[in-house]
Structure formats: C-alpha cells, structure tokens
Fold:
Amino acid sequence: MLLNAFDVDAAYLHDEELNIVLQSKKRPQSYKSYYNAMQSAKLYIPTIKKILSKADVPPEFIYLAMAESSFTTKAFSKKKAAGIWQFMPATGRQYGLHIDDYLDERRDPIKSTEAAARYLSGLHHRFGKWYLAALAYNCGEGCVSRAIEKAGSDDVFTLLDEEEKFLPGETRNYLRKIISFGLMGIDENDMSLSGYGYFMNRASSNSIATITLPKGEKLSRVAKLLDIDNEEMKKLNRHLTYDFVPPFSKTCNVYIPYDKLKVFNQHYTPCDLKKIYLVHVVRPGETLSHIGAKYKVPYKIVKEFNHLKSSRLHVSQKLIIPTTPALLDKYKFTFATNSYKVRAGDNLGSIANRYKISLSKLKEMNKKKSNTIHIGEKLIVPPLPLQKNRYVVKRGDNLSTIARRYKVSVKDLLRRNHKKNSVIKIGEKLRVH
Structure:
C-alpha cells in the first residue's frame, strides 16, 4: 500500500488536511496537468522506478519527483535548482553529478535519479522512516531534526500539526502533495471516470535506452538517422547544453526511445567531425579569440574541440568550428569589442535606444542588476546599426573585391569615401552607394 511505502500509518488517510490537498488535486484542471505530466514522462517513468527499486528506495518516491518538477527535465527554480529532482548545484556535485557549460547531469533523467536515490537512502539511514526522508529532502536535515526535538516526537500527525507548526508550511503540504499524487496514481476507478484510464496501460509500455556517442557528435544527426523528432531528442537529453556531445568527453551517455535501439546498433557509425561542422583554415595574424569572435563561438570551445594544449596557432592549420543555433544565441554579444563611455545626461534607456537593443539586453551584456550608471563608466555595446549603403572592412578585403561585390568602380569608392589611395583597415566603414 502507498502509505506503507512511506512508513505512514493507514489512519493518515482520514487526515483532514491531506483530504483537502487531495481534493484540490482532483479538480479537472489539476487532473489534466497531472496526467499530462505523466504522459509527457512516459518514456522514462519505468526506468526511474527500476533505479529506485534497485537502490532499495520505494518506487513510490517517483511521486516526490512529480511534486518537485512535474517530471520536467528542463525545470529550473529561482534558487537555481534544476532537473526532475530539483538538485541545487552544490548538492548535485556532492552526489556525483557533473555540472559545467556543456553538461548538467541534474537534467539527466538517469544519473539524477541515481543521485536522488543515494541522497534519499542517506536520509532514511539517518532518520529511520521514509516520510522523514521525504520531509528532509524538502526542508533539509537540520530543519527536520529541530522539528523532532521541538515536538518531542517524529510521529507524522504531530510533525504536520497545523496549530503547532513544527515544520514550515511548504514542507507540511509537501508530504501531503506527494501522497495525494500517489493516491491519484493508484486509483484506477477514479482515473477511468476522469477519462485518463488509458494511461495505466501506456505508462509501462515504453522506456528509454542508453547509447554512448563520441565527443562532438551531433544529437540532431543521430535523431535524423533514427527518425526521431528533434524536439523529442532534446527532451530526452536536456543534460546536454548544446546539440553536440561535450568535446572533453571520450564518450557521453545519450538517451533514445528503447524501440530505436536496434536501428542505432545496426546503422550508426561515428562521423568525421569535419563533415558535420565548419572547418576554418588559419590565416596570418589570426588568434583563437579572433576566430571565435568571427563565428560567435567561445574560443574555449574551439580550443577544446580541436584538442589544443595551448592557444598557439600556425598558418594553414585547420580548425573545427562547432557552430550551432544555441551557441550563436547564447554568445551573441560575448565578443562585442565596441564600448561606450558614459557621458553626463546619459541613462541606460537612452543608450539602449541608440544601439537599437532592449534595456534588459544591455543590462545582461554588462551584468547589471540595476539601471545605475556613472559618468566615465565603460559599457559593452553592440556595433551601431549600419546604414544599408555601408560596409565594414574584414580581414582579406581590398577595394577591388569590395567594388566587385557591390558592382561599383574603385574610383567611385575612393571618391565616396574621400580617399586619396587604396589603403583600407580592418573594421573601417566604407560607403558603397
């Protein structure tokens, strides 16, 4: 029985506060949200249950994950907790989860569940009862210990007393919410009456398979090979920040629907990275920073993708550039070389208007939490929007190539830009029409 799994006496079914929470969860809209979450997570719910059982954690603790995140792997709280089990960064690392710019295993449905199982087992070992482990998962071990000491008991009825308030209100409702979700999940008659009875048969019919991919491999390429929708592939692999396996990993766990495993084993072959990414040939004077800025990819990623031990480059060296939409969006302004010196009368709003960006984007670029600026302060800004008849000189340009591109003569370019000779500089703005 569900309550036994949490070491809660069956009499708790008659608790008034529990039934208030349960009835609120059974309202039509709440029911719909509950089963939509279950349906959305149907691929990995069976695997999560197996992991919990293997660790001797009651599989009913899957409803704790429901209470934490509604099984949304991309869930992220204001306190920076992430993933199905809502691990904080420090706690995640404490239980063996890898977190960096490329990979956040708090969003990994398998590894985060294994970590949660270890965490819950430790809490159970300390407190001796599963409902106390659940409470401590929410408010912390110290909070539960102080509540038990103050109450003089670890009895569930006593700790959740609404008048004495030994525990915070959120924590008192936390256990009720978990138990309510569990009662809804085992009430087949109730689900049938609500129109969600089909879920009972579908929830255990699918699962996920773990495959290993080499560093740099694109998820989208594998998804295409296996005829998996890109969005479904992303959903199963939220632990990967980008569309590729981290460059520092020899291999990486990636998840696919179990029924696609046979196709993967039969048809997947690692691809030459040079065939799925851009290849840049180093020119004289170029640095990693220049190349990264050109493609709007952090130089660190370029360095790691190409296994470079130092930042030294040589002419004609070929570099793999892992350009992806996510990278282009995330690092859009990271390499902005333009800066603006604040003058008397300036404010962030007027500066944002001048450079045709939003106030929030300008604050984000300069890591500002308020609108306060000071005279003389330097702000990072994007390049001023060019007029349609302007061209910014790039490395390798000369007046002849620019003239041919815009179908004008070199003589016209010289005249329009008041030039006496053909010398131009990188970054110089030329009027072309």
In short: The two ends are 80 Å apart (CA to CA). The chain has five domains: 2-202, 208-271, 277-330, 339-380, 390-431.
